[in-house]
Amino acid sequence: MARHTERPARPATVLVASGSPPFEQSAAQLLVASGFVAACAFEWEAARLSVTRTQPRVVLIDGTSTIPHVCMVAEEAAARGIPLLLAHRENEFNDALSAFGARAQHMVGISLPLSADALRTSLIALLEPAGAGSVAQLPASPRRVTPEQDTPLLRRRDSLASTLHEIESGGLKGVGVIVVSRGWWDECHLSEQTAFRLRCDRQGIALRADDRLSRHFVELGSRPIAPPLSSEREV
Fold first, then answer.
1. What is the DSSP pairing of strand 175-181 with strand 206-210?
2. CATH assignment of 11-135?
3. Is the pTM of this model over 0.90?
4. Is the N or C terminus of the chain more exposed, i.e. has fewer CB atoms within 10 Å?
């Protein structure tokens, strides 16, 4: 008789929605230090795609950034019943809440500046009602992240060539995968494609092309390398 083997739990993903790169980076570092996986909602990406791509358990909203994209991510997450954690200035939770107009099954505020302990406590409070059968794993304890470590936050660059130059020169570390536009990749000459593949292979980087990605950007992901999306293909 075949034995039933439970699939190991994976850390819960938290989607960061902000119009401020410094907020995204600091939030990602704190999330990783607290045992979570951080993902970023890109301003150029439709809110629906951001939420679908990352499959977050919680969305961390920058309450000081009320740009349309952040508001749309909050509304999309609320419509799917995903809890929202609203980072706000001290004593301004109600103002921040009314500015977004989003509602979720469980919503809490967290005061700025963020701290790892407060962030972890708030996230666990949001995730625990999911019950013991949840697929995502709650972190047992915080872990240290040194300044040299890169977070698993997805990053963005303008071109593949400049990205590889930055990696090869030592200015960009921890990249495990690069995703380019399929349309842009198909227009490259065969010799260019071969050169890009070789440069990625030398750095131990997976190179993928995505049908839905804009040709104006490339996406970078750090290790461990996440499985490809349905629209991504190895090149």
1. parallel
2. 3.40.50.2300
3. no
4. N
